[in-house]
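Input (structure):
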């Protein structure tokens, strides 16, 4: 799964607007850290945001 700035922003917005639960965003972040492929040019920012 490709992790983009847009994907991270969508997940955070969904959580803030109560469209997904804390458990769902935590599960997504864990999956992203283990299996995700971060965009190269924003790798550090995306990794730190998801972490």
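Output (sequence):
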């Amino acid at each position: 799964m490709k992790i983009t700035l847009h994907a991270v922003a969508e997940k955070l917005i969904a959580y803030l607007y109560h469209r997904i639960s804390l458990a769902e965003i935590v599960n997504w972040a864990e999956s992203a850290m283990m299996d995700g492929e971060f965009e190269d040019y924003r790798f550090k920012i995306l990794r730190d945001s998801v972490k």
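Notes: The longest helix spans residues 22-35. The radius of gyration is 10 Å.
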